Amino acid sequence: MSRPREAELELDDIQRGALSPRPTPYAATYLLFRIDDRVHGRELMRRASTAVTSAAESVSPLGATWVSVAVTCTGLAALGVPRSSLDTFAWEFRQGMAARAKALADVGESSPENWEAPLGSSGVHVALTAVAPDPQLLTAALDRARPAYDRLPGVTAVWRQDCYALPTETEHFGYRDGVSHPAVEGSGIPGSNELEVPLKAGEFILGYRDELGGIQAPQPDVLGRNGSYAVFRKLHQQVAGFRRYLKDNSTGPADEELIAAKIMGRWRSGAPLALAPQRDDPGLGVDPHRRNTFLYERDDPTGFDTPRGCHIRRANPRDASVAGEVRLHRMIRRGAVYGPPLPEGVLEDDGADRGLMFAFIGAHLGRQFEFVQSQWINDGVFFGGNDAKDPVVGSADGATGYTIPRRPVRRRLVALPQFVVTRGGEYCFLPSLSALRWLGDLRD
Predict the structure, then answer these.
(1) pTM for the whole thing?
(2) Which structural domain range is residue 32 located in?
(3) What sections of the protein cross the membrane (predicted)?
(4) Are residues 156 and 63 in the same domain?
């Protein structure tokens, strides 16, 4: 029996930022704009259609460098997209991230009233993201994109966040980042787990069949097809607090690293506990062909190697049947570090803002990003953990501890404080190149 034919993605019409993993190392910049004049906003879209890089350009003039442009729902309205069209977009997108705060567990210090202005407000309309292997190429990419928004008085830059790779190529908690990436049918980009069957293109790109056989696309077709949804979140990391927690709950440096691995599901080198359960294997951690090729339920159903409540097993349970159909909740995730590193060994907060700019790409905001955030990250029922939250990024309240399965007696860590605080974010639509041109040609 022959395999079903893969979707033929129109890569020359899809923004490269929708499918390509970030380069390693990397530098990145997020720019947000407000549209005050509809005519100038449309001109921005016209110019952007020539500045963004398509997914067909596997080798751009600037190497592994690209520019992406996304638009919020209020941004589409500011451009003059008719209400009849806006109503065909995902309802979570139409509400906006701030309105979804309770579902996302953005409460307390993470609640929208504490977000960094203007994130989450009606004054954020367009997001431009530039990614490059180094700061020099990033500057060149921004220079290439600048004509798209320069000298348009009706378009105002309202926010900027510069990101970069730490010298260790890790995020601020010390873990190697950017390890996992799903394979998408028709993209030509291999996934990082050779045991995972490529996902249907419609899970990530609108206008194609998804895992359920359906096709999702806002209308008209020229606007929705070949687009995607993009989630941006600025996440502040409590690095000193994280280090103190590890130190206070360990018996020494080696035990501290073991606890760090049991909380994350990987050693900080990137080596997974699934393949290196007893001790770190830095060589495995840097090997992109081996470090993510494993399953859980087949080899470690009870979680003695990789705890069922650790971060990476929650975020992607892989072959876990108790988590439902995992493939319906897969996401393209990306992270970019911002802020200065806290010097090694420092256990007190220095007051600097540091963390991760998190990005999600997918065609289903509700059953991908929001489901994972609410059901897997901030609830433990699906694996028998009751109300236990993700030990790294969950909205911990300081009342729940963390359990490490162990023979003959499990190990119980004291109550977890909150290590990651939401500083703001946006739900965006990532239009195709032809949709950018369509938006630029709108008329009242």
Answers:
(1) 0.95
(2) 11-235+426-440
(3) none
(4) yes
